[in-house]
Amino acid sequence: MARVLGFLLLLVLFFHIAMASDPSPLQDFCVADPNSQVSVNGFACKNPNLVQANDFYFGGLRTKGNTSNAVGSKVSLVSVEQLPGLNTLGISMARVDYEPWGLNPPHVHTRATELFTVLEGTIEVGFVTSNPENRFITKVLQKGDVFVFPKRLVHFQRNIGNTNALAVSTLSSQNPGIVTIANAVFGSKPDISTDILAKAFQTSDHVVENLQLKF
Ligand SMILES: *[C@@H]1O[C@H](CO)[C@@H](O)[C@H](O)[C@H]1NC(C)=O
């Protein structure tokens, strides 16, 4: 009996932990105060009496992001850094612009599930499930279509049209965290040893050095 109860308790604890996410707010809002000396998980709250409408506003998405870069896409993130009113609310968003055939390269969000909506163009999306299956799940999306990238899985998007594409993402954290795989692996500071990456990727030091130069 004690064993059964112990097991049930473990189960309850496990599911409690498994459902953890950004904390639920204990007040109407907690506008981030970046100047506070108090260290908390997130940001300390600005005095609510001093809060202004602009603390809940971000006007920086009116214009197209600059896609003149190696991958031909630009993510304009609106997280708690850009919009202090998002603090403790467990949500953020991004505008994503793509040149023709532009790619938002494989990356993960360490803290967020992403809900992706195509506003203009035709976009190929995909994500890969965890080991050992590493199943690749992919789809071509049209304007108006919605796709979800589950939290922490490697995913990408590519514009497969000859015109610009535009998408909007919502993310289930005020600070979703972005790790772009190629940049993290081949562009770390300082470099991961070439021989480590050569063995991990089952290739030569020369190939790894070339990749490290690019990132
Ligand atoms: C876009 O980015 C490129 C590369 O960094 C830069 O040369 C160019 O001036 C930028 N364009 C605009 C309109 O800011």
TrEMBL record:
Residues the entry annotates as binding Mn(2+): H107, H109, E114, H155
What does the UniProt entry say about where the protein is found? Secreted, Extracellular space, Apoplast
> Where does the secretion signal sit in this chain?
1-20
Q: Which residues cross the membrane?
A: none
The record ties this protein, via InterPro entries, to: Cupin_1, Germin, RmlC-like_jellyroll, RmlC_Cupin_sf
Disulfide linkage: C30-C45
Q: Where is the Cupin type-1 domain?
A: 59-209
Amino-acid positions noted as binding oxalate in the UniProt annotation, renumbered to this chain? N104, H109, E114
UniProt keyword annotation of Transcription regulation present: no
Would I find Secreted among this entry's keywords? yes
| Keyword terms of this UniProt record | Apoplast, Disulfide bond, Manganese, Metal-binding, Secreted, Signal
Q: Which residues form a coiled coil?
A: none
Question: Which SUPFAM superfamilies does this UniProt record tie to the protein?
Answer: RmlC-like cupins
Q: Name one GO cellular component term.
A: apoplast
Task: Cite a single Pfam family from the UniProt record.
Answer: Cupin_1
Record CDD domains? cupin_OxOx
As one GO molecular function, the record gives: manganese ion binding
Q: Determine the domain of life of the protein's source.
A: Eukaryota
Q: Which family does it belong to?
A: Belongs to the germin family.
Name the UniProt record assigns to this protein:
Germin-like protein
Organism of provenance: Deinandra increscens subsp. villosa
